[in-house]
């Protein structure tokens, strides 16, 4: 079994910053990629940022404002979010993709980020 625990969601004013954390534990072997997704009310879940094979990828809407990083020794991913906007309001989900023995995606429970004045 694999568990993902997220933290860091909060209510913040426009222009503020937050840092999300995601810690993975359990039966994790071999290569693994991590990423952050978000889902706003009435919208589909969308990719925010990911680290795939060591390369980072960002949604156009967050480029230059968000930074994804990870601590491989702890299998922990972070999402530093700066210059937050009201449209960043959503539930943010951590994703862990394992490749052995087969490709499987695991998801965290989600953490709420609300950007409001």
Describe the protein's topology.
Elements: E1 2-7, E2 11-12, E3 18-26, E4 32-39, E5 46-52, E6 55-58, E7 66-71, E8 76-81, E9 90-98, E10 104-107, E11 111-115
Tell me what you see in this structure.
With 117 residues, this protein is mostly beta strands. The protein contains no helices and eleven strands. A hairpin with a 4-residue loop joins strand 7 and strand 8 (76-81). The model has no long low-confidence stretch (mean pLDDT 95).
Helical segment count? 0
User: How far is it from the N-terminal to the C-terminal residue, by CA?
Assistant: 40 Å
Average of per-residue pLDDT values: 95
Largest sheet: 7 strands, mixed
List how many beta strands DSSP finds: 11
Based on CA inertia axes, which overall geometry fits?
elongated
The sequence of SSEs as H and E is EEEEEEEEEEE
Name the poorly predicted regions.
Answer: none
Overall SS class = mainly beta
Based on CA atoms alone, the radius of gyration comes out at: 14 Å
- The proportion of strand residues reads over 45%
Estimated helix fraction: under 10%
């Amino acid at each position: 079994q694999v568990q993902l625990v997220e933290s860091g969601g909060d209510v913040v004013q426009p222009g503020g910053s937050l840092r999300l954390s995601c810690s993975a534990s359990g039966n994790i072997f071999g290569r693994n990629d991590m990423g952050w997704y978000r889902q706003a009310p009435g919208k589909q879940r969308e990719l925010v940022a990911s680290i795939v094979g060591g390369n980072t990828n960002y949604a156009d809407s967050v480029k230059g404002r968000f930074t994804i990083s990870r601590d491989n020794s702890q299998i922990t991913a972070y999402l530093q979010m700066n210059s937050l906007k009201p449209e960043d309001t959503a539930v943010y989900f951590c994703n862990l993709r394992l490749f052995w023995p087969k490709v499987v995606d695991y998801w965290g429970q989600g953490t709420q980020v609300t950007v409001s004045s």
